[in-house]
Amino acid sequence: MKFSYLFKNTIMSVIASGNFVIKAWLQNNILHRLNNSQIKLLNNRYAHAVIASTMAIVPLSIVRGLVITASVLCETAGFNHAALWFMQLQIGFLALAPLVMNIYVAVHWAVRNRLSQIYCIALSISTLMIFRRILDDNAQFFLDISIPMALASGIIGNVLQEIVSKNMLKVRQWKDSNNVTIVSFFVTLMIIAIFSSIIKLVAEASLHHAMSFFEQLSLYFYPTNFLNGISYVLLRSVPWFFGLHGYYLFMDIDVAFTAAAKLNINDWYSGRGALNILSPVFYDMWCNSGGTGNTLSLVICILMQKNSPHRRLLTIAGPMALFNINEPLIFGFPIVLNPVMIIPFVLTPLVSYVVAYGATYYSFIPRITAIVSWSTPGPIKVWLASGESSAAVMLYIALVALGVAIYYPFVKSTLKQKNTVNNDMDLLTGEVKISQPTNIEMVPNYNHVVEEYSHLEAQRQIEKLQTSGQFILFFQPQVRLSDNKIFAVEVLIRHQDDNGKITPPTFLKYYERAGLMPEVDFWVMENALDYVRENMSETEGMTLSVNISPQTLVDYRLLHIVNKVLAKPLPAGWSLEFEITESQKVQEPVRVAEVMEKLRNLGIKIALDDFGSGYSTLHYLTRYPLDKIKLDRSMVLGLAKPDGFSFLQQVVKLCMVVQCEILIEGVETEQELELVKMAGIELCQGYLFHRPLPGKVVCQLLAEQDKMQMQPGHCLPEIEAIV
């Protein structure tokens, strides 16, 4: 008995351990890889363009759904004329959707790449019209287009213009970037027209064969039997992964399918044939409960998660799900570009289809005898379409419950993943930053909605800055402790309003949000170099340090502008240094490393700014070619902690390994200065020495430095009076 008891317990323990190992493997490998692939997709600029354009038609889809609902209500109440008017209105919304998406691809591309929105929209629409004419000689307007064509023409036209612009900058030195935009627009349009003509003349036969092939292929998805019906389910749900509505993509199939279903029901009423199992209403009843993907079950799962931040989403998505409109839920949870949630989103309607098809085939529930609008609430729709069958309503409830069982583990896993991923630990300070969504717009991965609105807000703030004053330059000296001399100056941008009030660079967040940091950096670089040449040429052997954002590093104009500003030589012994802001995340590390190497070949020093305050700190030291490392003020503040000094010493040793100069920022007291010296740091910057100063003050400091030795933290009286 004891042996059998021990054997049984051992077997149960092995099984439990095996289940735990399998569950852990699934969680740490499959879901981890899926989430990593999601991050890569979200960082892809083409995916960004597609998602931005599909989100642009979300309001259009919602309004269309409400119009259809109004049409159904009018028809039910006997107002047939009003019902027909509403139905024709929704057809107009449907035809307008591809054009809206095409335009918004251009708007998104322009905002992201700091280009003219007018040129991008004109190019996108022109490309669309050319493509439309290739497919149909009789096409006079471009409302009769498909979504794939609208997206493809928008992306192809703008990508081609980007390539043309880059090559034009290489071929000729343009003085005005606007000339590049104008010329590249017409050159791109000419290239598209020429290649389209070649395709039309040379490959017309092949094009017709290709179109015939796709038409034949589409027949496979036409739901005439059980297997083709499965393909139809996949056709309606899988495209949502890319933010594309399957109905919009393959509208021709649905139109023919609806017409065939109406004819079949009429024949059955006339006694000329049997009812088919499959019809559009069949899919709306069993595979689109709450919208594509049977997302009514997802709504219930979210309600079951008490701590889920997505519950806020239900204030909008919940009521709409009752009318089978689920775009807010699909984009808000999200389903779009989410490799984890797309699994239950496809699996739930697929399982429901199999169960409902079997129940109908074996006559457990009656076949559909009436065409009911897709926007009719689920139980009512099932009741009306099935001839008032209570068995069909019971099956509907059971399938919703089955969908909840399928969605639940994925929703729970997603919530758990969000709680762990949002932790952002600083590798040097050990501080953990937790970002929790506070409202519907801040739900994780729904940030592309806020992002588009934030661009508009940023542009408004920028316009306000530009009309209420001017930008000016300040300089903050950097001091060498061995001889207490200024060896470099860092240039800083400030805003001075019409009343003379000077604002620190808090406004830069608007430029960063709007993608305009390169314009700021280029302006600072050009004006600072001009000021040094005109006013500081008497002092030799100095370094001018200019802040460069990660946005600017990957801007294709950077090397061209650097060569332009360095065409005129610097004062004797002066060198130019770029400070790369480490507190901002680098999106294209390979490209950044290549650009840094090219800048160093031009004689420009590279300094890593704010070391220890931002992203991937240790990774920066080994990946990028650096000449100087600027320790963030957090290192100085850490000296007040028990192990702060030891920590600073270790950081200095770590920086010495990569053979870079070390400068520490934010030194404000004599005590901090003594500890910094003891840690082996030679270069300093901070309020103890000098605050950011106007250019004329720095010029006098440099002039006095040539005459006398300055003490740390003290300025000459006449200099203090000027400040």
TrEMBL record:
- Please provide the Gene Ontology terms (biological process) for this protein: phosphoenolpyruvate-dependent sugar phosphotransferase system
- Keywords on record: Cell membrane, Membrane, Sugar transport, Transferase, Transmembrane, Transmembrane helix, Transport
Transmembrane stretches, by residue range?
Answer: 46-73, 85-106, 118-135, 141-160, 180-199, 316-336, 342-364, 391-410
Annotated Gene Ontology MF terms?
cyclic-guanylate-specific phosphodiesterase activity; protein-N(PI)-phosphohistidine-sugar phosphotransferase activity
Record-annotated PTS EIIC type-3 domain positions: 30-410
**Residue span(s) of domain EAL:** 455-706
The EC number(s) given in the record are 2.7.1.191
Q: Could you tell me where this protein is found in the cell?
A: Cell membrane
Q: Which cellular components does GO assign to this protein?
A: plasma membrane
Gene3D superfamilies membership: EAL domain
Q: What's the protein's topology in the membrane?
A: Multi-pass membrane protein
Query: Entry's SMART domains?
Result: EAL (SM00052)
Q: Which InterPro entries match?
A: Cyclic-di-GMP_PDE-like, EAL_dom, EAL_sf, PTS_EIIC, PTS_EIIC_3
Protein name, UniProt field: Sensory box/GGDEF family protein
